[in-house]
Structures are given as structure tokens and as C-alpha cells.
Amino acid sequence: MDIRKHIRGETMIQTIFENVKSAPDSGHLASYIPALANQSKDLFAACLVDGKGEVLEFGDIDYLFTLQSISKVMSFIVAAEHLGVDRILEKVDVEPTGDPFNSIVRLEVAEKGKPFNPMINAGAITVASLLPGETVELRVNAVREYLSKITGHEHYVNQEVYKSELETAYRNRAIANYLKANDYLVGTVEEALETYLQLCSLEVSTQDLSKFGLFLSSDGKFANDNKNLISRKTAQFSKALMMTCGLYNASGKYAATIGFPMKSGVSGGVLCTVHNGELENLNGHIGIAVFSPMIDEIGNSVKGMDFLKKLSDQYKLSVF
Ligand code: GLN
């Protein structure tokens, strides 16, 4: 079945959305900071944007949520474009861990304590310290500006979320100290931590994320012009990292069952990028994003993943 007809006609995708929405609740809200614990559990949004810039949206599309771990993709891209992928790889590997995102254990067992990949906290804190700019503010702005080029508007740090993140960052601070002890961080531990946590606290809508997914799908091209914003190599590494490490220690399962690059965050968002030859009329490109704050034990949005699985099955979106 051609998804293009439905990105216009929308009935089938609407039905999938409604079915997932009305399914019984499961999972829990992220509870480690009040701003996330107080989100309404019923929020649910999905957005698809195709290669012609046509948008299909469902549910609570105006709701802004914080990127959390999804910011790891943007940080990697901006740092890789600044220094080149190879320089980043000197400080961070590209191997999945099978461990939770905030795990410390591999830093002790890895050769020279090198973080395994940029999609876990250890790797992302390292990458945050490699962003362009001498100060936390400049580094955060580099990512904000990048994001704005793709979404077409400004993005702000949610100060309430950031403040709570910083106050409760015991584990992340331990990881950052460990990284500093092994010489992976540029600048101070606090600078790397503040940069990382401000990026986690950047606000986006579901549509913003779907535009980012489309942008990645087309290797850095906009929907409406052919200007490339990232190198092929950065795009290739970003998508490979999302596919192999983007859904924490459930990445392998979802690569097998859904089969396109995705990155989730504990606030309940999922960024997806689809490039599938079967979608010929769209030049094969779609950006998809979902948001629903009830997450499973691993940290992935329950309804979000359910919607994506049904969509992938219905339209054969897996790359495999
Ligand atoms: N701010 C959270 C942390 O660093 C982000 C976690 C996430 O989305 N997995 O622990």
C-alpha cells in the first residue's frame, strides 16, 4: 500500500492513531523531576511530513515538550559538522551497549574508559563538550540555531526542567567526572553537564521533530529546496546511531520489529526518519514524530512505539 495516498487521504493513519489512543494505559510518567511527573498522561500526538512538505498531524500537536535524549542526535550532528566525524570518533565510539542510557558500568570496563556511543549519557556529555563555542551559552546556542534552521522558528530551554535536571544530576555528574578523569571532556565537568542538560531541556513540538526526521531522511536537505545542511557522512552516522542505539536497551528489538532509525526521550517523544524505496512518489522520504509521555521501564513512549509499530507494519516501512 502506498503511504502517499494516505498522507493525503489520511483515513488509515487516523484509524491507527485512534486505535492506539483508545487502548488501555500502560507505562508510567517519568518521575525523576516534577515537570515531567506532572505532565498529563493522556497527551498523544503524531505527525508525518513528506518529501513535498505535506504534513499530516493527529492529537495534541501544539503541545511543547522537552527533547531530553532526542537532543543527543542534534548535538552529535552539530559537533560532527564542526569537527568532522573522525575527530568525534576519537572521543566516542559507535557501539551499542545493551545497557540503560545512564549506565556507568561500561566506562570502567571499556578500553581507556571511552564512552560507547553518543546516544547514551556518557557519549552525549562528551559530545556536548565538543560543540562549537567557548561557553555553555554559545554551545547551547549552536544547537538551538541549527534546530531553528530546520523547524523555521526559535527553540527555548525550559528553565523549570533545566533547573530540576541540574539539581538532581547526581548520576550524570558522576559520569561526567569519570569522563573528565579519563580526559574525554573539553572544558570543565560542570560546563559539559550544564550544556548537556540545557540541550535535554530544549522545547519542541511533534511537528518540529517530524521536520527534523525528514531533514535527516534526505541527508540534510530541506523539503523545499535542495540545500544540504550536513555532510553525507554525518547523516549516515546519525541514522546508523539512531537505528542501533536510539531506543536505549530496546534498540535491537525495535530495529527488528519496526526497522527505521528512531530516537526517543524520557519526556515521551520519538524522532523517526524513514527512507524507503517503496515510497517512490515521495522520493522515498518521510519524517515522523510521536509524543506520548507514558513510558515503559526502559524509557520509550508506550503509545508512541505502538503507533510506530502499526504504521511500519501497515506500510512496510522497515528497511530490512
Ligand atoms: N535528562 C535525562 C538524563 O540525562 C535524559 C534522559 C533520557 O531522555 N533518556 O538522564
Describe this structure in words.
Substrate binds at residues 69, 121, 165, 172, 196, 248, 266. The protein is 48% helix and 11% strand. The protein has a 5-stranded antiparallel sheet. Strands 1-9 form a two-stranded antiparallel sheet. It has helices at 3-9, 11-22, 34-37, 71-83, 85-91, 105-109, 121-129, 136-151, 159-167, 170-181, 189-200, 206-217, 232-245, 251-257, 302-315; strands at residues 28-29, 45-50, 55-59, 65-66, 203-204, 262-264, 269-275, 285-291, 294-295. The mean pLDDT is 92. The protein has 320 residues and is α+β, with helices and mostly antiparallel strands. The chain folds into 2 domains: 3-65 and 205-315, Beta-lactamase (3-Layer(aba) Sandwich); 68-200, DD-peptidase/beta-lactamase superfamily (Beta-lactamase, 3-Layer(aba) Sandwich), CATH 3.40.710.10. It contains 15 helices and 9 strands. The longest helix has 16 residues, at 136-151. Residues 68-69, 101-102, 121, 165, 172, 200, 265-266, 299 line the site of glutamine.
How would you describe this structure in keywords?
single chain; 320 residues; alpha+beta; Beta-lactamase; 2 domains; 5-stranded antiparallel sheet; two-stranded antiparallel ribbon; 48% helix; binds glutamine
Write the layout of secondary structure elements.
Elements: H1 3-9, H2 11-22, E1 28-29, H3 34-37, E2 45-50, E3 55-59, E4 65-66, H4 71-83, H5 85-91, H6 105-109, H7 121-129, H8 136-151, H9 159-167, H10 170-181, H11 189-200, E5 203-204, H12 206-217, H13 232-245, H14 251-257, E6 262-264, E7 269-275, E8 285-291, E9 294-295, H15 302-315
Helix pairs in contact: 2-15, 4-5, 4-7, 4-13, 7-10, 7-11, 8-11, 9-11, 10-11, 13-14
